[in-house]
Design a protein that fits this description.
single chain, alpha+beta, Nuclear Transport Factor 2, Chain: A, 2 domains, 5-stranded antiparallel sheet, 5-stranded mixed sheet, 10 strands, 31% strand
Length: 156
């Protein structure tokens, strides 16, 4: 039994509308040229359409391509580090510009307070780099950076 499936055009359209709503993406047409896959845990993966036959012939595969993000129970999308870098280039809303100390805390895996912002998912940006996607809930930024990707020391 295959644990990964292609996101069909109807689901893709809904997902792109969600991304547009969450992050203000105006042109979603370039994303339709890519192949979006999902597994039973609602994790989304992104790959090239030419890989379609190869990826789907793998037995019991749970992932293929780049981990793009996860569809949450409330149907919002939490982007991965790579997903935030892909979407960040075209996003116009819910981008949080971090200061150096905040970026360092984020990359070390800490949660921290962010006053006066609406609850929801935000793309985190330091200078020109996107550092991931965080959830602001009750004026606190929650970190989803995996432990294996956290930094012990940040170099300027």
């Amino acid at each position: 039994m295959l644990d990964i499936s292609i996101i069909n055009s109807k689901e893709l359209k809904i997902m792109l509308i969600r991304l547009s709503t969450q992050f203000g993406i105006k042109d979603t047409k370039p994303f339709t040229k890519l192949l979006f896959l999902k597994n039973h845990k609602k994790k989304i993966f992104l790959t090239n359409k030419t890989e379609k036959n190869f990826k789907l012939n793998l037995k019991r595969s749970e992932k293929a391509g780049i981990y793009f993000g996860t569809i949450n129970k409330d149907e919002s999308i939490r982007l991965s580090l790579e997903g935030s870098q892909i979407i960040g280039k075209v996003a116009t809303k819910n981008i949080l510009q971090l200061e150096h100390a905040q970026a360092e805390s984020w990359l070390k895996g800490y949660d921290f307070d962010i006053p006066q912002l609406e609850d929801g998912y935000y793309l985190l940006k330091y200078k020109e780099d996107f550092l991931g996607c965080g959830l602001i809930k009750e004026n606190k930024l929650h970190n989803f950076l995996p432990k294996t990707r956290r930094l012990k020391v940040l170099y300027e």
